[in-house]
Amino acid sequence: MNGDWLTTARQTLPRLLRLLDELEPTYRIQDARDVSPDFVAREGIEAVVWDVDGTLMSYHAPAIEPLFAPCLEALRSVGVRQAILSNCGEARFVELGQMFPDFPIVRAYSMGEERVYRVLHGGEDSLGSEKAKDLLARGARQVRKPDGPLLLATLEALGTTDPSAALMVGDQFLTDVASGNLAGTRSAKLPAWAKQTFPVTLRVSQGLERFLYRISRLRGPRRSS
Ligand SMILES: [Mg+2]
C-alpha cells in the first residue's frame, strides 16, 4: 500500500501546479448520507461515482460502512446510476467487485499512448485478472485519479452521456475533486471517514493536499475554461 501511495505521488507531483486549478469542489458535504434522493433531485444529478476508502468505509474495510449502505440503496431506488472509482491495487479491485456486485467498478491501464479500460460489474470482468497481470508485467501502469478520461469512462460504463449531470464523491481534493473538475462533472468533498484507520503515509498526503487546497484558494478562483 505504501507502493500505491508512492506511485500516486510520483504520477501526481509533476501535475500539481496545473491541478491547483482543479481542487474546488462543487459541494462540501459531511458524509455519504448527504447524497440523498432529495439532494440529487434538487441538483439534477443522475449519476454518482463513489470513491471507496474514506468515503464509503474506513481504510481497506471488508464492507461498506453500515451507516452508508441505506444511502446507496435509497439512490438506487430512485433510479440514480452509481459506480465505483478507487485508486486501489489489483487485489482490492477484485474485492470491491464482490462488495459492490451491482455497480460498475472501473480502472484503466496505460502503456505509452495506449489505454485499456477494465470494468468489473455483476461478476463480469471485461479484461480479467490474467490479462491485467500480463499488461502490468509488460510495463503498463495503472491509471489513477486524478484523471478526467478515467472518470468519463466510468460514466460511459453507467450509460451516462452528460458529465454535468454526474457527481464524483470523495474525501480527497487531489484525486476525487480534481477528477470531477477535469472530467466536467460536479464533485462533492467530504472529510475522510474513520481517518484514524489510514496509514501514516496517507494521512501525511491528506495533510499535504489540504495545504495545497489552501494555496489554491489564495491563488484565486478556478479558471473558467
Ligand atoms: Mg478516499
Automatic annotation (TrEMBL):
Keywords: Hydrolase. Signal peptide: none annotated. SUPFAM superfamilies: HAD-like (SSF56784). GO terms for molecular function: hydrolase activity. It comes from the Bacteria. InterPro entries: HAD-like_sf, HAD_sf. It holds the Pfam family Hydrolase_like. This is HAD hydrolase-like protein.
